[in-house]
Structure formats: C-alpha cells, structure tokens
Amino acid sequence: MGYIKVRKANCKNCYKCLKNCISKAIMYKNEKVEIIEDRCILCGKCITACPQGAKKIDNDVSIIKEYIEDPNIKVAISVAPSFVSVFKESRKNLVWALKQLGFDYVEETAVGAKYVTREYLHLLEKGEMENIISSACPSVNMYIEKYYPKLTKYIAPVMSPALVHGKMLKEKYGKDTKVVFLGSCLSMLKEVNESEYVDNMITFNQLTQWFIQERITPAEGEEMPFDVPSSYSRIYPIVDGIVYDIRHISGKTQGTDKIGGYDLVSASGLQNVQRLLDEVQKGNIKKAFLEVFSCYGGCVHGPFKVSHGSTSYRARIEVKDYADRANDTADEYVGDISATFTPKPVIEDMPTEEQIRDILSQIGKNSKAQELNCGSCGYATCRDKAIAVYQGKADLYICMPYMTDINQALSSVTLDLTPNYIIAVDNNMVIKEFNRAAQKLFGVTRLQALNKPLSNFINPVDFQQVIANQSNIYNKKVSYTEYGIITEQTIVYSEEKNMAIAIINDITREEEMKKAVHRRKLDSVEMAQKVIDKQMVVAQQIASLLGETTAETKVTLNKLKDLIDSEVD
Ligand code: SF4
Ligand code: SF4
Ligand code: SF4
Description:
This protein is 42% helix and 14% strand.
C-alpha cells in the first residue's frame, strides 16, 4: 500500500526528492515520478524536500471523524511528546481542544514509552546481545531490515512507544475502543496500519487543519491535564532522549557510564545512521546500545511537524524542559510488548560490468574521467545511475553534463550552418555572439567581434529599442548600404540574460528579383502604349471602314495597360 501521493502536475522534474532519498526509492520514467514501495522506508524526506509540494501523505482522516460521530464508539488519542514544540503556549489547552473535537480519552504516548525504556534496560542488563539498536523509529527499522539485513538481529525486540501505548489503551478502555496516534511521523502510518493496537493516525498538520475547520482555537480554551500523568519518557523525541530515559530509569545519570557493559551511542538523520550502521557491519562497534532516529534531531523534527518558528535547538530545549518537569509514575504495566523484526533484503537484478559500461557509453562516458559523479541526476555516482537505468528506474538521458554537451553541440551546429546573421548584444550594446555568417559578412573572426561595440559594425538603434522596451521587433526591413545588403531582421529580447538577439535574414537577392520583375512590367506597359498609339493611327486612317471594331481594340488594349499598371503600382 502506498503512503505517499505524487501530484504529477506539480512535479517539475528537479530530482531534489531523489537526491534526498537515501534508499533511492524514487523512479523517474517518461518524466513521471513514482515511489518504489519495496525500497521506500517512509522517512518522508522526499515530501519535505520537494520545492513544488508535489508529494503529500496519503492519509484520510475522515474515518477518525466517523468514529467520533458514532455514539457507540469510544475514541482514544495517543499524543506524541513532540506536541510541546508544536503547540507551544497553547499546549496546556490541547487536551481541552481534543475533547472539543470529540475524543473521549486523551493520553500521552510517553505513558507507553516508559515501558519501552524499561525493556531496553532489561536487555542491557542481561547483556546477551552483541549490540542493541533502539526499535522506536519505524523508518530505521525498515532501513535495517531492507538494506542492512544482517544487522536486523540487533534491533531490540520491543514494540514502538505508540504501539505499546495503543495496546495499553485498548486493554484499559476496551478492545473496541478506537485508538488514534497523533504525531509527525510518516513511517508510523505504516506501523499503525499493520498493527492491531492502533487504528489510525493523524499528523500535527492534519489536526491543526481540523481545529481550523471546527473553529476551535486551543489558545483560547481551558487548561486541562492529560487523562493520566506521564513520566520523564516525554524526553523520547529528541536526540539522546532514549539514552537519557534509560539513564533516568537505571539511576545511572552520569553521561559516560556504561550500562550492563554497553556504551550508549546516538545517531540522528539517515546519513549519520548509515555511517553508524556501516561501522557496525564492519564489526568496528561491539557492545553498544545505538539510539537511532531517521529524522535529524529526532522525532521532534518529523516530516509532519507544524513549524511555529522553532529551530531544532529551541524545540530540543522545549522538550527537555517539559520532560524535566515530569514526576515519576508508578510502574504498573506488565503486558507483553515484544516485537519481531525480520530481514527483508531488497533483491534486484544487477547488470554486468559490460552492461554498465555499455549504458555509460550511451551518455558519452567512455572513460573513468568522463564519469563526473556530479549527482545532478539524483544518483551519487554515474555507475549508480547506470545501474538504475538497467533496472528500469531512471531515464538514460537524464544526465546534466551530457544534455549540456548535446545542447552546446546542437546550438553551435545551428549557429554555424545557418545562412542568417546571428548577433547577440548585452544591454551595453557589446557583442556577445557573432555567428559564422556574420563573420563572413563583416570580414572579421568571432574573436575579433566578441566584446566589441555593435556600433563598430552596424547602427545599434533597433537593438537599443528592444532592450529598452523589453519587446521584440519582427521582420523589419533594413538596408545596410555600406555592406550592399538588404535584410529582414527579427530582434528578440532575452529576459533571462537581458540581451537582444538578432536573426538577420539577407533578402538582397529577393529584393533584386522583385526589382527585375518590376522593370519587366514597366517594359510591358510601355509596349502596350506603343501598340495603342499605333492602332490609333491606323484607326484614324480607316475610320470610316472599321470605326466600331477599332474602338473595341482600344478598349481591350487599355484594359491590358491598366491591368499591368495596377500590378506595377
Ligand atoms: S522534488 Fe521530486 S516531486 Fe518535487 S518537483 Fe522535484 S522531482 Fe518533482
Ligand atoms: S519516504 Fe524516504 S525512502 Fe520513501 S521515497 Fe521518500 S525519501 Fe525515499
Ligand atoms: S554525470 Fe550524469 S549520470 Fe553521472 S552523476 Fe552526473 S548527472 Fe548522474
């Protein structure tokens, strides 16, 4: 099932989403973007990176509204701790606002997070695992299962805080109670969909929209506490949050203390997580607890946070401050919160070295030096791009250096071969392009013409007018008597470069031909006049005999003369 919608009409094929996608789960074919579900880890980076807003979460919240409207259904909402940096001053009124919408029970996900931490601590104290990777971020779990399958055994076999809390809510309020998770995470949507403990999810953005639709302004509401108090586990959404919570519960608050012989290490942002996992895979990291977040800075910077101007540092301080003010709660829950993670390696058909070389050579890369690895196609290296082409995920010719070369070659061929004079000048009337035909006409080389004033060659008045008015002149006839040519010139304004570009068509030959035709017509008129005159003389001599017939001849010849006259005019 897809969780990301692509609005194809909005996409401008800039490849920014592909560049930001660590698992290269985006396919470009025939100028269309598609998500490759099997590769996607739902990190949401492609959504936040898209400058056109061409991607959005595919999550219909109308079903949540339906639950609420049904008087036979009770609805509980589990609020992720990042809410403190989203709702800021109005956070104390959030419970009131959610109850206004119709939620029956409002609790914090931190209530469940506490038991996740407790399990992590048990695993650390048992000391049986070579390394332990936190399981709280579904994106990272998927990343490991798909791209580091051998490390799956290190993921702590514990449910995420949202699922644990969902399970607790269902057990407390009845299994028919609908549980909704409120957060900023895309991958949680998949986890929720596949779980029996949480029924739906709503993002902070979607909730904010809902408040607006219902004309509910949390800031104007009443302060109301959550239905049950949460503990220090509110610290979860920031980097080091899980580590802090483990230390808090274990009582070992010193930053460097090992727990159960494990070092506690944090990494956030997929690039950093990737580097850390590479080290683990190489065997360079042993006996470590790895707290990992797909989002840089932690869940507090999830893809669907609502930013009210909080910087990552500010949001971190806000969450930390909120956690510091929590009181410890009694340890009550004893249910099973174990989870299983299984390797799901992405298996794809790989090209041979010969096939890679063949693809690269089709885009002008016949040697290592020609593989620029510029990344503008979205792939880190030319080889990666060639492999994606082989696998049908990328268009062969989407390669900036290659397309630029082709464009340059095409434009220089066009400039060289056209019989028209092409001259481009900047706003100071300095020549910036001077094609081969122009060089021939003016008897100078391109280098001799470039960066010289246009006035050295022709009157620049039309070019000045085009730049001043930022409007084009089409097919204007201009004679350059000093060069013995008559031209028809079109001068266009280039807004991007603030230049005037002229395409000057030499029409001297056509003009000479027109003159020759004109001359021939004048000769014909003259001849017709002579015939008429001659006829008139003859007519006068035999007027009595042929009077009427001669008059008819005169009329006919005059018609012929008029006709020629009109054409000459
Ligand atoms: S980021 Fe991706 S989806 Fe957005 S416009 Fe660019 S190519 Fe299209
Ligand atoms: S959600 Fe993440 S993994 Fe999936 S396509 Fe977008 S950037 Fe790639
Ligand atoms: S040279 Fe082309 S194929 Fe290679 S990385 Fe750059 S844009 Fe991609």
